[in-house]
């Protein structure tokens, strides 16, 4: 079946293309009583939107959300929530010259192989434009997990090219550090290491001047997640998180915890010893380190969930590249239009979105088993169904 839906208990279905009238998402499974308005969606959409700084694409989209259903008098009703985001600044003429040419690094050829027909304007369904409504849906998921168990998801740029941020404790990074530099200026690259952030911006600007692009790594941390979310076999929490991140455009690698670093360690060096800790919430079980990235056996441990996604350089480049036509004839292509010289700054809210969607889904599935601490449902209204 077409893969346009994601999740089980908290399920999102999206539709739309890069150069169509707009994109829409339907969210099923959100409990009734959660306070919700368009304002709740705007903050993350503004972080994802194009044109927000000099180092991202200059396509000018307001990304204004319209909630069409599922909300009454400022609260969710428990029925399907539909959100529409209209496209306002398409320039489809930029793509007319490549309708029969396969762009290197793009899904043009694989789309033709799959469907025999494609929307060549800006990538169509495979464009990152589709992620607008994922981010809108995840704003709802973020509110749900915050009210349900105090969960929070913070993403940031860990690496651009060979420039790597120095971060001792990923779980200590705040959204404020990601969005603002110590001077109070906007942190346009979304790296919480202010020294490396300056170097990253310089590298991205150099890539733009050279009509080239650069890749990097985003790190996403979910804190406040209770132990017990996930399943032990096919629906492991780590598996669903990996699928969620891999579903985003341009992601070529995903790891969590120590990731590929485990390949050089012994078992004794890699294991995280358990211990008892005391905090404001009372005694709990934790581990002394977090090499396991907050998940064991596919189930959350209560430690911060730490993930990383490797994001490739932007494939659309305004200089000639060798390729072929749909008929197999050699040619060259130079992609016009407006594109990011580095995808990482705008990728961060997309990655946060997918992590939040998975956590909301697994929280609701866990509660359906009768597990989890007693807490009031969203909005503070007790409901026997929750």
Using the coordinates above, name the CATH class: Alpha Beta
What would the CATH topology be? Chorismate synthase, AroC fold
Detail the poorly predicted runs.
374-386
Q: How many structurally independent domains?
A: 1
Number of strands: 18
Structural class: alpha+beta
CATH-scheme architecture:
4-Layer Sandwich
Characterize the largest beta sheet: strand count, sense, and whether it forms a barrel: 5 strands, antiparallel
Number of helices: 8
End-to-end distance: 30 Å
- Tell me what portion of residues adopts beta-strand conformation: 15-25%
Mean pLDDT, to the nearest integer, reads 90
Q: What is the overall silhouette?
A: globular
* Major β-sheet strand ordering: 1-2-3-7-4
N-to-C SSE series?
A: EEEHEEEEHHEEHHEHEHEEEEEEEH
Q: What is the fourth-level CATH superfamily? A: Chorismate synthase AroC
Please state the CA-atom Rg, rounded to the nearest Å.
Answer: 21 Å
The percent of residues in helical segments reads: 25-40%
